[in-house]
Amino acid sequence: STYLSLGAPESAAAAWRPLADRVFAPPVLSFASSPATNAAFGSALRAPLPPNVQLTTLQSLSEGKLLLRLSHQFAIDEDATLSKPVLFDLSTLFDPAAIVIKEAVELSLTANQNASAIRARRAAAAAAWRAEGGAAPPPHAWRSAHFDWATNATVALGPLEIKTFELTI
Fold first, then answer.
1. Is 157 exposed, middle or buried, given 0-12, 13-18 or 19+ CB atoms closer than 10 A?
2. What is the C-alpha to C-alpha distance for residues 67 and 139, in angstroms, rounded to an integer?
3. pLDDT score of 11 more than 60
4. Which residues sit opposite 154 in a β-bridge?
5. Which pLDDT value is given to residue 137?
6. Are 86 and 50 in contact (CB under 8 A)?
7. pTM of the model
8. Strand duo 86-89 + 65-72: pairing
9. Chain segment 85-103, per-residue pLDDT in tens
10. Could you say which of 23, 98, 104, 105 has the lowest number of CB atoms within 10 Å?
C-alpha cells in the first residue's frame, strides 16, 4: 500500500507520524484464559496517553515483573505543540483494577542496566571534557531528569525519546 499525506510543513508531522505508527507498528492483541482478566486488560490504561506518547512495550518479564517502554513520537521542532517534552505520572498510568505498580525502576533502552548508572557516566564524561578545556553543550533538561519512584513518579519524556522501566506489580 502507498499512503500520501499532503499538508503544510508546520503541521505535516501531526498527520504522518500517527499514520506511520498505525501502518508499521499496529497494536498487538493479547488474550488471557480468564474472562475477568480479559476484561481488566481491555482497559488497563486509566486514561488515554498524551497524543505525543506511545506505549511501545508492555511485556511480562517474570512473575510480578513487567517491562514497560514509553516513547515520544515527535522530533524537536517537528510540530509546534506535539514536539514539546511531556510530563506524566507513571503511578496513574494504569487502572488499579488491572495493574498496580508497587515499584518502578528506569532502565537503559535495552533494559540491561539502570538508567542512573548511564546518567552518572554521562556526567563524568562531561566533567572530563570540561577539565580538558572543552565546552560540553548543556544537555536538554529532560535528558538529565532523574526518575525515582519512591519520591516522585513523574516521567519526563523529550522529543523522540524512549524510556524503559521495570515495574514490580
1. buried
2. 27
3. yes
4. 89
5. 64
6. yes
7. 0.76
8. unpaired
9. 999 899 999 999 889 999 9
10. 23
Alpha-carbon distance 95 to 119, whole Å? 31
Beta bridge partners of 66: 60, 167
- At residue 40, does pLDDT exceed 50? no
What number of other Cβ atoms are within 10 A of residue 164's Cβ?
A: 20
Pairing of strands 154-157, 86-89: antiparallel
**Residue that is written with C-alpha cell 488499579 in the block:** 96
Q: What is the residue type of 80?
A: A
Question: CA 129, CA 132: separation in Å to the nearest integer?
Answer: 5
**104 near 166, Cβ under 8 Å?**
yes
Residue 68 CB neighbour total at 10 angstroms: 23
Measured distance CA(167)–CA(61) in Å, rounded: 9
Concatenate the DSSP letters of all residues of 118-147 into one string. HHHHHHHHHHHHHHTT--PPPPPGGGSPPP
With a CB cutoff of 8 Å and minimum separation 6, the contacts of 35 are none
Span 29-35, average pLDDT: 59
Mean pLDDT of 130-152: 76
